[in-house]
UniProtKB/TrEMBL annotation:
One of its GO terms (biological process) is protein transport. Signal peptide: none annotated. This is Coatomer subunit delta. Residues 99-122, 152-179 are annotated as: Disordered.
Amino acid sequence: MAFSTFNFIGRFKIDEMDFLWEVPEYSYSLDEEGICKHAFELIFAFDEVISLGHKESVTVTQVKQYCEMESQEEKLHKLVMQSKINETKDVMKRKASEIDKSKIEKNRGDKGGFGPLTSMGSGKIENSFNDMSISSTGTGFGSGTGFGLSTDVDSFSTKPKGRPTASATAPPKGLGMKLGKSQKNQFLESLKAEGEVIVEDVQPRVSQSRTAAPPLTDPVTLTVEEKLNVTLKRDGGVSNFDVQGTLSLQILNQEDGYIQVQVQTGDNQAISFKTHPNMNKELFANEHILGPKDPNRPFPTGQASDAAGVGLLKWRMQSTDESMVPLTINCWPSSSGNETYVSIEYEASSMFDLQNVVVSVPLPPLREAPSVKQIDGEWRYDSRNSILEWSVLLIDDSNRSGSMEFVVPQADSSAFFPISVRFIATDTFSDLKVTNIIPVKGGNPPKYAQRTQLITENYQIV
């Protein structure tokens, strides 16, 4: 290649010293290996020096400038894009500031204030007066002016306290740029066109996940929850297996607080239960009944929005037995040529039916998404964090095992660890169940509901 390059130049009958002054700028070594390594750069440079067989009157600086081919339009485009990004960030900051102000007004209203009327934020006073029922009755300052401030007091009683109205939360007219829907979509589309992976708004997903659980409408609700912390070895074996469970009580009305809770525990001897210090320990040990030490003292009450409730009982289980693990993951990376084939399989225990299973596999930095050859379920590639998510909606007796195979460029086997897993189940290791609600002062027991779930807090294969 090097000699062919020199022969190409020599055909134009130009003295050797006329163009060799340019070669060291692109190749420090003038041997065949150095010339071959920078052949294309040299050809482009010679093309700027020679025109139709004649030498051009150019300098080394000019040749380098011509070869770099800097585009003023490209620089201008980048400046415009950066300006749009900065402008959008400023608008988002202003929006966040307005949301914070509305939250402060709402908190003041919940404490007995008048909501937006107590705030002196920009544009809030004018909007707040617009929310009041103002009528021109001819009194006050006269009907001719239209400022007869006869406020309808009933309008305050019909509105929730501290809840900002639509006019109060809207930004005042003429203050700054508005972030319209078309502007936001245009900005996102421009980023997508440049190859950036855009994650859509996360807030609606959070609200959906919160509303997935039914609201607390029963007078008494008892929640059995176990959190699972598991660390498995990639070659087999258990490094850590820890289950922590709680039984919580939530009562909506104070008159339903004079009760006792009777429970039934499973046959798992590895679990040790501990009652709340205010519970009657002897009553629980002898009859499996949870009640206050003082029968005349009711359980605390809470609103339906309080998710925690009152803790009555807690337990813990630790083990090194791999058969207790509800889900095991086997990962087999193998390299072939310039590619790495990764086979992953799961095996689920028959003890539980698992829901919303997601296996997150870290990947080395990739230019493109991995090539998934086979999968039992669905997959999604998170390019920003370089993670491949394998999801299975439900694992039951019909699919206790499953597999996935994908291909990536050659990488070390340790690049695919640690693997994280998350899922939920409606069964627990303790198999704790509420069997009865006993009213302390007699009468009919209140209606109650029971919720049971097993969730993963930290589940990894390292």
